[in-house]
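User: Some background: our group keeps a shared notebook of sequences we're curious about, and every so often someone picks one and asks for a predicted structure to add to the entry. Today it's my turn. The entry only has the sequence so far, pasted here. Could you supply the structure so I can complete it?
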Amino acid sequence: MSSSRRNRFEIWAEVLEFCLRAKRTQTWLLRETRLKTSAIKETLQFLLSRNLIEELNEDNSTKYHTTSRGEEVLKRFYTLVNDYFDLK
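Assistant: Of course. Here's the predicted structure to add to the notebook entry:
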């Protein structure tokens, strides 16, 4: 049984993954995650407050990038999911 709703851990992991591959704007993340503006702002603030992403000002826009700490958290998250919820 599968649900299209994501929990907050899945959303955090998704944003960390997107921002690991490339620097992303809030607008880009908003479109790709299909979250409401308030939800993406809350998510970004949460990840920033825990030093999992960093805020960069480039080309007159604010972009977000996953920190090395955020990358480590993402790896641990996927390890836990794979170890305990393997869906083979």
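Suggested note for the entry: The domain at 8-84 is CATH 1.10.10.10 (Arc Repressor Mutant, subunit A). The first strand starts at residue 24 and ends at 25.
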